Amino acid sequence: MTVQWYPGHMAKARRIMESRIRQVDALIELVDARLPLSSRNPVLQEMAFKRPNIIVMTRSDLADPKATDAWCAHFAAEGILAVPANVMSGEGLGRVKDALFQATSEKVNRAKQKGLKRIIIRAMVVGIPNVGKSSFINKSARRSVAKTGNQPGVTRQEQWVKLGDIELLDTPGVLWPKIDTPEQGLRLAVSGAIKEHIYDVEEAAAFFVAYASKQYPALLCQRYQLDVIEPITWTDIQTVWPQVQPLFQAIGKRRGMLIKGGEVDVERVARMLVKEVQEGLLGRITFEWPPTAENDG
Ligand SMILES: Nc1nc2c(ncn2[C@@H]2O[C@H](COP(=O)(O)OP(=O)(O)OP(=O)(O)O)[C@@H](O)[C@H]2O)c(=O)[nH]1
Ligand SMILES: [Mg+2]
After folding, report:
1. 75 in the same domain as 216
2. Distance between CA atoms of 5 and 33, rounded to whole angstroms?
3. What residues does the G domain cover (predicted)?
């Protein structure tokens, strides 16, 4: 039976999610390694019903390795196992499988004592849109069973996928409306979790450029052949917009993104910037650091 999740209706999505969680032995929570906190579902733990939870940090190939280490330590300090993974190459997926068997070993042992021969472990794969849930399942299953695509909202219906003794439930990405700060929303936008027509692409690009001007100036300079970059502190779009203009202008000129009269097409520059960041073309970048890490910008 297939169930429509109606991602737009949170009460209903939550009810369906809760009933599915009751059917599984463990949760595999996918977060984006570039924004491990902002991409978590804030209410998942309230619904977990004591199911073991494994965090998989996808896109580890695009994230800053130092930040990824810091995030692993951060989650470990909270007693949560977080495994960095590249779900396109499969790197890290073996560790996830091991962790799943370990987390459910009690069930397996109990079943063995009862004399059951074949024990199936069921896990639900959850996460925000476009985080890599379906790709994770395909790679784990070593076949293309779930439809994937690099935009949010590809999976519309849940689907069980068998991989030997493990069954994984693919679910549609859910973005909870409780976004704590504007910065969290902007990180989600830059990462590709939010449909393009819903957010302000110029604001997202300005937010990213300000962040990168402090955290990754060399990567910005390299990609867009800029000389020096003054660090810009993000506060809000009104304040930061004039400060990022010289950079947008320089980048626009380099790329020949001009409108009639020779002016730079700022919106086009913003769109291009966000797209290139999402594709990882600037290099390995993490958008947020654990609260205690020194590099937090
Ligand atoms: N480089 C890289 N790209 C990834 C990784 N994980 C996901 N992606 C990219 O993200 C896209 C989205 O993957 P999906 O598996 O469709 O994401 P999903 O979570 O199922 O998305 P919805 O079904 O829309 O909620 C993939 O097509 C890849 O382009 C990763 O670990 N590394
Ligand atoms: Mg999907």
Report:
1. no
2. 25
3. 123-191
